[in-house]
Amino acid sequence: MMVTSTKKSTLYCKFGWCGRPAWVWHSLLAMMLTVWSTALAQAETLQALNWWSSTSEHKAVDALVVKLAMENILWQEVLIPSGSGAGALIVLKSRVIAGEAPEVAQLNGTIIGDWADMGLLLNLDTVAQSGKWDKVLLPAIYSWIRPRDHVVVAPLGIHRVNTLIFNPKMLTRYKLVPPQSWEEFELVATALQKAGIPALAQSSEAWQVATLFESLVLAESGPEFYRDIFVNKDPRAFADRRFNHALWRLRALKKWMAQPVREQSWTEVTHLFADGGAAMMVTGDWAKGELNAWGLTTDIEFGCSTVPGTGDYHLYDIDTLAMFATHKGHRPAQLKLAQLVLSPDVQNDYNRIKGSIPVLRNPDLSRMDSCARTSWELFSRGARVQVPSFAHRMATDETSRDTIIAELHRFFTDEHVSVSDAQRRLVQIAKILRKATKS
Ligand code: GAL
Questions:
Q1: Separation of 326 CA from ligand 1 center, angstroms?
Q2: Quick one: which atom of ligand 1 is closest to the CA of 318?
């Protein structure tokens, strides 16, 4: 203690503050407090509703919040923890209806266009023009954020949903490699089972079941069939034998999962995997960000591959921030935030931590791990390989998504529902949804 205080007084003396009377110190403190509180009073505060509650998600948001603070803008967190945003969206909707929309919200999916049509979202055209977003953004992203030819959201990053994360040590111990096809998967899972290791970590939470199932549909026969199911909701596609087969695969995979398949959050499932409770997991690459945040290194403690049969495709989920057209006084801060989201530093730092990839045409590839690089290189190839995630709101409207997911969830959790029952019900649902969309 003595040593510290001596050091301090030596330092103060150096700057000529040595031996000043107490009132000098008090006035100095008062002055500092005044400056600080004036700065705080002048700082603009933006309420930001989001569902990012995990370790990596917090850290990733911090990369943006720090930059925002440098502009004297405070990010006031309105956190509604809920995997894939189910709960957050309900809260957001009720706040919008009550006329209490936050200034900022994490918003994914087709709802962006609907809310822009209703005039709820701030037009970001000027920020986009001055930042040359048409040139710096990947073309698919630039078109996604302009649902009716006006920019209405600021894109943060792109997740790859058809990701397969594996434990390399476990696989190598039994001379196995990550499976590329479902035939290979069966062989790998059988060998692991003999060693008493479950092949897959999986939750029975509805959105996580849907996240797995959409990859199975994609694996069945590629993007065209996937679109017929999840974008066009074509009853004939739902009645197709390929859809039957995807349902069968979903049921069959249960036997390779760590038992019991409980309704766990995605971070709990990731923990199960990290603790060696299963050799692989099918997940969006946000789980990669989380493993990194827990100190596990990509390509060492875990590896990153793709769901069997989907390696040529990028099943994407785009995270964006929407600015609500609330009080006019918030506009400058909201526009500043939109501008910062696209700055190279935020894009590189945020996405590296989050597990996603930058939305830019020229990101810093050297700062990406192999998983992110593969994801970015594939996505940047364009429309031919890009497939919109149904579970993460990229493919269809909320009602269709929720209804189909509820049925899939029932099928997954209740063994009494047969594959043909589930298929029959989903064909009916598709017919009703189709009618509703047309009327
Ligand atoms: C997705 C979202 C990701 C991540 C994930 C898990 O819908 O786009 O950023 O939050 O859910 O909750």
A1: 25
A2: 8
Residue of 51, 79, 163 to mutate, ligand 1, most atoms within 8 A of C-beta: 51
pLDDT in tens, the chain (439 residues): 222 332 333 333 333 344 444 444 444 544 554 555 555 557 999 999 999 999 999 999 999 999 999 999 999 999 999 899 989 999 999 999 999 999 999 999 999 999 999 999 999 999 999 999 999 999 999 999 999 999 999 999 999 999 999 999 999 999 999 999 999 999 999 999 999 999 999 999 999 999 999 999 999 999 999 999 999 999 999 999 999 999 999 999 999 999 999 999 999 999 999 999 999 999 999 999 999 999 999 999 999 999 999 999 999 999 999 999 999 999 999 999 999 999 999 999 999 999 999 999 999 999 999 999 999 999 999 999 999 999 999 999 999 999 999 999 999 999 999 999 999 999 999 999 988 877 6
C-alpha of 109 from chain center: 12
Contact status, residue 390 vs residue 230, Cβ threshold 8 Å: yes
Q: DSSP assignment, residue 313? A: -
Q: What is the DSSP annotation of 347-396?
A: HHHHHHHHT-B-SBSS--GGGS-HHHHHHHHHHTT-TTTEEE-TTTTSSS
**Cα-to-centroid distance, 285 and ligand 1 (Å):** 9
Reduced to 3 states (helix: H, G, I; strand: E, B; else coil), residue 308 is: coil
Pocket of ligand 1 (CB under 6 A): 52, 83-85, 108, 159, 266, 284, 286, 317, 319, 392
Give the residue, by CA position, lying nearest to ligand 1 atom 8. 319
- Are 91 and 47 spatial neighbours (Cβ–Cβ below 8 Å)? no
Q: What values do phi and psi take at 73, rounded to 5?
A: -120, 130
Please tell me the distance between residue 59's alpha carbon and the centre of ligand 1 in angstroms. 14
Give this prediction's pTM: 0.91
Ligand 1: nearest atom to the Cα of 82: 12
Backbone angles phi, psi at 124, to 5 degrees: -110, 20
